[in-house]
Design goal:
Blueprint (H helix, E strand, L loop, with lengths): L11 H13 L3 H10 L6 H8 L3 H13 L3 E6 L2 E6 L4 H14 L20 H8 L8
Antiparallel strand pairs: 1-2
């Protein structure tokens, strides 16, 4: 996906890999795993303990991230240590955090992709969700 000064449009087929990349990161569990791995290698047991998730959940999402070649592992004896395989990934997430900050996290209010829903749908609840700093951190 290239954005250049000539403003040439990329075909939809040409944009499919970029859409798949963003889709692979479109899950809070996968983002939390990537966020943790940005701090250093971790085993599945470390991730389950630190993120408070089930082993099967962590393994499933690691499999997805490995399939996308964003995460990989190295074996040491009977243990596997997972790490970020694409060094550009933390930069991408930092750019996303900057974009969220620049837009005041308005995407949380998006009726299609937003997360700012409450049982009452109150404006206060939506506003609190927009300012939520617990989103992706660099």
């Amino acid at each position: 996906m290239v954005i250049d000064s000539d403003c040439r449009m990329t075909s939809l087929d040409g944009l499919a890999p970029a859409a798949a990349l963003f889709h692979s990161l479109a899950d809070p569990v996968r983002l939390s795993i990537v966020q943790r791995l940005a701090c250093g290698e971790a085993r599945v047991v470390d991730l389950t303990r630190e993120l408070g998730l089930a082993q099967s959940t962590v393994s499933k999402h690691l499999g997805c991230l490995r399939g996308c070649r964003l995460v990989d592992y190295r074996a040491e004896g009977r243990q596997s240590f997972y790490f970020i395989a694409a060094p550009q990934l933390p930069d991408l997430l930092r750019s996303a955090e900057q974009l969220l900050a620049a837009t005041d996290r308005a995407v949380a209010l998006c009726p299609t992709y937003g997360t700012a829903t409450t049982s009452t749908g109150s404006a206060e609840g939506r506003a609190a969700a927009v300012g939520d700093p617990a989103r992706v951190r660099s």
